[in-house]
Amino acid sequence: MNNSHKKATQSKRNIAGVTLVELMVALAIGSFLIIGAVQVYNQSRHAFVINESIAAVQETAQFAVDTIESDLRMASNWGRNSRPDTVEGRSLPDDPNPLDLPAPADCGVDWALDLTRPVQGDNNAYGLACAASAAAQAQSDTLTVRRATVNAAPLQAGRLQIQSTRVQGRIFADGAVPGEFDPAESQTHNLVVSSYYVAQTSDLIPGVPTLRRKVLDTAGGGATVTDQEIAPGVENIQVQFGVDIDRDNTVDQYVNPGDPIIDPADAAYIATARIITARLWLIARSISVEPGIQDARNYAPGDVVLGVQNDSFRRLQVSKTVLFRNART
Question: Which phi and psi angles does 166 have, rounded to 5°?
Answer without folding.
Answer: -70, -20
